[in-house]
Specification:
Number of domains: 1
Number of strands: 12
Strand content: 35-45%
Low-confidence stretches: none
Number of helices: 0
Largest sheet: 5 strands, antiparallel
Helix content: under 10%
Strand order of the largest sheet: 2-5-8-9-10
Oligomer: single chain
Structural class: mainly beta
Mean pLDDT: 87
């Protein structure tokens, strides 16, 4: 059984910046938090990454490999989903790190 990512999950960029998790999903929850969807947009706060002397924080995450099951036409995110973190210039800077997930799913 996959572990679902919800608004209560903890996810970081590879440099320990925190993702601010929001979702358009209002139908499927797991352990009390709405399940994130592959189409959701997440911003990153507090990324300290630099390239040489230039500050280049992760600012957003784009997801892929959501679950095969769909919710309102969008794929739910699981702990096996891949989130690529991007700089303000749109350069990929690594894969998001899932720190905490939920397992129990409830349909509303």
């Amino acid at each position: 059984m996959p572990k679902y990512l919800t608004i209560a999950s903890q996810i970081q960029c590879p440099h320990a910046g925190q993702l601010i998790l929001t979702t358009a999903n209002a139908k499927v929850s797991a352990d009390g938090g709405f399940v994130l969807l592959e189409s959701d947009q997440h911003v990153v706060a507090g990324c300290p990454f630099t390239i040489g002397p230039k500050y280049s924080p992760c600012v957003r995450v784009q997801w892929s490999a959501g679950s095969a099951m769909t919710s309102a036409g969008a794929k739910p995110l699981t702990d096996s989903s891949i989130g690529i973190c991007y700089s303000p210039e749109g350069a990929p800077q690594g894969v998001a790190v899932v720190v905490q997930t939920q397992q129990k799913v409830d349909a509303l």
